[in-house]
Design a protein that fits this description.
Layout: E1 19-25, H1 32-44, E2 51-54, H2 57-68, H3 72-83, H4 95-109, E3 116-117, E4 136-137, H5 139-148, H6 151-156, E5 160-167, E6 173-177, H7 185-191, E7 201-203, E8 206-210, H8 219-224, E9 231-238, H9 250-288, H10 292-299, H11 302-310, E10 315-321, H12 338-360
Parallel strand pairs: 1-2, 1-9, 2-5, 9-10
Antiparallel strand pairs: 3-4, 5-6, 5-8, 7-8
Helix pairs in contact: 1-3, 1-12, 2-3, 5-7
């Protein structure tokens, strides 16, 4: 868990007209079980959220939470119990060997609740595998999502869901929002369609891949649609560790590479937010030094007023980070063995419980509670809070 180094540079919460409580889930395959455990601990404390957001497996977790209300923890448990594959479990001389063997079983045999290898289903065409656009068929995952997510409640409920996917042809990151369009199973499949494992998914007249290819943390798309003048409190669950020892072998090097790749996308957004917020503070000081008539005249200029709105922030960011362990294999995100998934869920719960104890000791802390309907005008292009000098893990207003 990152430690806060100095107070964030932001306006007082009392200046905001209301508070939005947001929960953001990253993508990370089997590591998503950590998110289920973490949410269980938050739910036991009575925490609720106005907006849920996720990408890839995080989109599925977020959709279950957003649509199942008080039963969310139960359905998350059923979801991860279904993904838990006993076939992947087998004896091994060491824990590392067990996890590697379990992951490779998933690669070659698939997961009965999530994906089927194409080489094990039906006759091949004349071109063989060269005609495929993916290695696996996600039909089992579609059926599981249809059972676990209440899509009618998702459309009618108070919690807002935002999931992301990337347009295969344009490369644009698209946010799908339950309060501006009716979301279905295809949106969740698109958000988790990581190539070359899974095929692109058609939504409307466009085809999409996993949103984690562009950003594994969909916070930007969430904060774009919330009013710029309101305070936003965001719990962000990260699945890829930020700190590592120097790799000692090729598997550790590949694991560290994966962590840095997905973690760095959040860091780049945080650095941009830092520059944005500092710019806004400078603009405020400059405008304050002008006569009132000049300030009012400048505020009416479309270009200036839109820039000021875009850079106005009221965001508190709370991080829950999967710490991993030294030597964790690169295959950690596709090891669906029961032992490993139980371990991730247990770690997620423990991490959230420890974080809650720290957060609740703060004099200014208030538990997260949904504040009613999450319907707001949008979109607006503002984002994360400013960051302090030093490693970005300690700069994103983390608590």
């Amino acid at each position: 868990m990152a430690q806060r180094t100095r107070p964030p540079v932001r306006r007082k919460a009392s200046d905001a007209s209301r508070t939005w409580d947001v929960l953001v889930f990253q993508g990370g395959g089997a590591l998503g079980a950590y998110e289920a455990g973490a949410y269980g601990a938050l739910a036991e404390k009575g925490w609720t959220f106005d907006v849920l957001a996720g990408v890839s497996i995080g989109a599925a977790n977020a959709a279950i939470v957003a649509s199942r209300g008080k039963e969310a923890t139960t359905y998350l448990g059923r979801f991860w119990d279904a993904l838990s594959d006993p076939i992947a479990e087998s004896p091994a001389p060491s824990e590392m060997a067990r996890r590697q063997l379990a992951a490779w079983k998933s690669v070659y045999l698939g997961n009965p609740a999530m994906f089927q290898p194409r080489w094990m289903s039906g006759p091949w065409g004349l071109g063989g595998p060269m005609e495929w656009t993916s290695l696996y068929d996600p039909a089992p995952y579609r059926r599981l999502l249809e059972k676990m997510v209440d899509f009618r409640a998702l459309h009618d409920g108070a919690s807002r869901l935002i999931v992301t996917a990337v347009d295969v042809q344009s490369g644009e990151l698209r946010g799908f929002d339950s309060h501006t369009e009716r979301l279905g199973v295809e949106h969740l499949l698109a958000s988790g369609a990581l190539p070359p494992a899974f095929p692109a998914v058609k939504v409307g007249d466009r085809y999409y891949w996993d949103g984690g290819l562009v950003s594994n943390t969909p916070a930007r798309k969430v904060l774009e649609v919330l009013p710029h003048s309101d305070r936003r409190r965001v719990v962000m669950v990260e699945l890829f560790p930020r700190h590592h020892r120097l790799p000692r072998n090729l598997p550790e090097a590949l694991s560290t590479l994966k962590d840095l790749t997905y973690m760095r996308k959040l860091d780049l957004d945080s650095e941009e937010a830092t520059r944005d917020s500092e710019f806004h503070l400078v603009m405020d000081e400059c405008l304050a030094s002008l006569p009132k008539a000049d300030r009012e005249r400048l505020a009416r200029l479309p270009a200036l007023s839109s820039t000021l709105l875009r850079h106005r922030h009221h965001v508190d960011l709370y991080l829950l980070t999967h710490s991993g362990e030294d030597g964790e294999p690169e295959s950690k995100d596709y090891d669906f063995s029961p032992t490993t998934l139980r371990m991730h869920r247990k770690e997620g719960r423990k991490s959230a419980e420890e974080a809650l104890l720290r957060w609740e000791k703060r004099a200014d802390f208030e538990p997260f509670r949904a504040h009613g309907t999450a319907t707001v005008p949008g979109p607006r292009a503002d984002y994360l809070p400013p960051a302090a000098p030093g490693p970005v893990a300690a700069r994103a207003t983390a608590r």
